[in-house]
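User: Second chain of the day. Same drill as before.
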Amino acid sequence: MEMQNQKSQSPKPVDPVAACGISRREFIGGCAACAAGIAGLSAMAATPAFAQTQPAGGKPKVRLVFTHIPPQSPTWPNIGYDYEGRKKELTARLKKGCPGIEFLPATANNADQGKKILEADKEVDGYLIYMIGIWTGAPQAIAASGRPTIFVDDFYGGSGEFLVAYSAAKRNGWKVAGVSSSNFDDVIDAARCFECIKKLQNSVVIRVGAGSGASGQNIRKILGTRVLDMDFGPLNELYKKADKAEAAKWADRWMGEARKIVEPKRAEIERSAAMYLAMRELMSRNKAQAITINCLGGFYGGHITAYPCLGFFQLNNDGYVGACEADIRSTITMLLMGYLTGRPGYISDPVIDTAKNQIIYAHCVAPNKVYGPDGPSNPYDIRSHSEDRKGAAVRSLMPLGKMTTTVKFSYNRKQVIFHQARSAENIDEDKACRTKLAAEVKGDIDKLLGYWDTWGWHRVTFYGDLKRPVQNIAAMLGFEVIEEA
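Assistant: Same format as last time:
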């Protein structure tokens, strides 16, 4: 470990996950043993938020509706088709692939039967409509209710009705995601959106030092997530009472795992560790899965005496959410996408370089376990916070040559803004925030210049090609996807 007082030229960063071969299927919902990341130090909870297999409010109840006409009729798939056998097979596969969902099977041969299913359902969380035959009218009748719904085409059985019903659902703005794929994993991935929504409805976000306003009420109304606003007082009290011996252990760990330490002295890193313990305790007491702090205003105004950057770094690595600058939209985005993918988000203030067709995601907080708590770790340096050259923060040298997905969900607009880029370089530049991940934009970089006045500067980046999961969850929430590149 290198200690130095002035900036030195960093060697070319390694890419520790380049050969890991992690597939999209493996990261969707895959992070079952995340608590091991704390390695001998006291943990906030037995199982990190993203790894919980069952939401606090219980498993989501999903009505699994198979639609087809009676087998005596000559139609797709064919006359005399064994619909009952196919239903048993698909139900078993869904239950095996989605142990966190309670499926309630039913059958609808026509639209009236679909409406009767709706009338009988009072507490289901949504509908998965498996079209194993055609021309029942039931999918449209159920989707028109406005409840979260997934349409699935059982190839060469429900294809015609799937195409007609899904097109109509999209045109009418119903909360419907569609799966037309020969890969059954795509059905499983879409179904897990029900778990994500249920977890959001039972989650708590702490927002410190930002006052209070209508945003928390709107989030509660639209997503079900509770936003708990508080001033800096409770956090400061816990910071003062933080166990110094445990803070020293966290400092030892962060310093020992860092590639190098540049500006901060050990005392500063121990203060960051005490702030981490305070945040963790505050979350534990309030059963929260996420925390966001007005860190700049708090530090510049003397309301806090240690930056939360290293604490956010650790929370995000361990499957919780630690979000900068009391940015509630980015916090909700990190929580939602974490439940959906098991991966942490990286808030940034982007810079766009049209000469290289690149966007540079810059910030002083970034995880170094971008594939989730159970995934590989990439190198990081411990630096000062950039703007004021104080405190302790992280420069994360993130994996290169990987597709990334950048989003922000707006609960007020019921929209999500979206673009993708392939990671290309960890930029070593003294100006601005410490972590600077450059990525080659997929799409039109000139178009990417056009949305910042209405969406703000922050974006949240996740590793992986997550276009389909974003489209699915947005559809089921009734959000519009805006592709900004």
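Residues 61-196 form a domain with the Rossmann fold fold (CATH 3.40.50.2300).

User: Great, on to the next one.
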